[in-house]
Amino acid sequence: MELILKQDINNLGSKDDLVKVKAGYARNFLIPKKMAVSATESMKKMHSENLKQRAHKEIKLKDAALQVAEKMKNIKLTIGAKTSSKGKIFGSVNTIQLSEALSAKGFDIDRKSIIIKDDLVKEIGIYSAKVKLHKEVSVDIAFEIVSE
To answer: I need a surface site. Which of 73, 89, 116, 134 has the fewest CB within 10 A?
Structure first.
């Protein structure tokens, strides 16, 4: 049975994919939970038209993300943290603090799209993080932890 997925499903496909599954799986699980709709001819036509319109919007979003990435490429953040005399931070620096520092520089970035490359930042020093601006566009930024 052919279905159009309404959301990402592990081991099956991502949103708006056209997939073939067994009829029982479709009737008993995917369709009742509104995870997919049956792929009739009219739904396929409507789906292809939606994909064309979304592709145009997606190009604009990607271009905007590339422009922001160019501006962010050379940015260097400085984050103050309370430290001991040996340079150890009380607590750790996380994505919330990076997001706030980026907001101070004029970039409105959600904390969930920031990935710190080192697991825990617990000492003074220079670190790097990856900021995902779009599903295909990401930029690496450097940040320095200093003692307050």
So the answer is: 73
Report the amino acid identity of residue 107: F
Residue type, 82: K
Q: Helix, strand, or coil here: 139? A: strand
Pairing of strands 88-93, 138-147: unpaired
**What's the pTM?**
0.66
**Residue limits of CATH 3.40.5.10 in the chain:** 2-66
**pLDDT tens digits along 119-148:** 778 888 899 999 998 888 899 999 999 988
Which positions ≥6 away from 38 have C-beta within 8 Å?
1, 2, 3, 4, 26, 31
118/140 Cα distance (integer angstroms): 13
